Structures are given as structure tokens and as C-alpha cells.
Amino acid sequence: MGLYDRIVVPTDGSAASRPAIEHAVELAAVHDAEIHALYVINLASLSGVPTEGSMEGISEALEQEGETALEMVTEAAAIRDVPVEQVRLEGRPSQQIVAYATDHDGDLIVMGTHGRGGLDRLLLGSVAERVVRSATVPVLTVQDAGAEFSD
């Protein structure tokens, strides 16, 4: 057994998540750990959708986005022969990430951050920040190298 056995890697499929995925895969390879790749659909953010027909199309698009995001993790892990469990969840992302890590004995959460600061972070919120504040397991945030951080 290594220091880490189960590394939880939430992803939204964005470019900002790639450095975190790569970092998580390297850690998993070194510690002989498995990765639990999470994609969380935030249904609350869809409350303004006007009709049920629109909701069906959005739901399909989100499912496809989730599949693509999770495959990104699986492909990166395959290069280093790291096992991956793909998990799709629904709810508030920060809550689902923390609950999953807790309920499945996660040893570490590795997630990307866009590096927003100041007013951008205040207006948009930060899933990574909420996870850091509420998780009972260590959280490693990896900033997108292309992000411009501001205070």
C-alpha cells in the first residue's frame, strides 16, 4: 500500500482540468493507486430552462460532455497503466465531490482550478475553493498553466 490508494479526480472536461489530470495520473502511478474520475451534472444550474423539450436536449449534451470528460481521464491513465473508475453524479459539484471522496475512502482529491481571483471568483464562485474548505481528505489544486491569476 502506498500513501495514496484512491485518488479522486473531478473533471469538467475543460482545458483547466488537463494539468490536474496529468498530475493525478503521475501520483497514482508512483503510489500504485487507482483513480476515481468524477463528472458532476449541476441540475440546479438548469432551473431556468423554459421547456421540457429543451431540458432533454441539454441533458443529452451534458451526458456527452461527461462521457468526453471522463474518457480524457481514462486515456491519460492508460498511458501509465493506472486503473480508473468512471463516476457520473448529479447535484452541486462541490458537495458531490466531497461526499464521494468521503464515502469511498478517497485519500486525495486532485482538481484543476482556473486561477480566477478577485471579482471574477466572487461572481462566479469556485468549486475548488468550496471543496478545499469542506473536504475531510487532502485536496491538491493544480492551476491551469495558461490561466492568469489575479488577486
UniProtKB/TrEMBL annotation:
It comes from the Archaea. Residues 4-142 form the UspA domain. InterPro entries: Rossmann-like_a/b/a_fold (IPR014729), Universal_stress_UspA (IPR006015), UspA (IPR006016). Pfam families: Usp. Belongs to the universal stress protein A family. PANTHER family: STRESS RESPONSE PROTEIN NHAX, UNIVERSAL STRESS PROTEIN UP12. This is Universal stress protein UspA. It comes from Halodesulfurarchaeum formicicum.
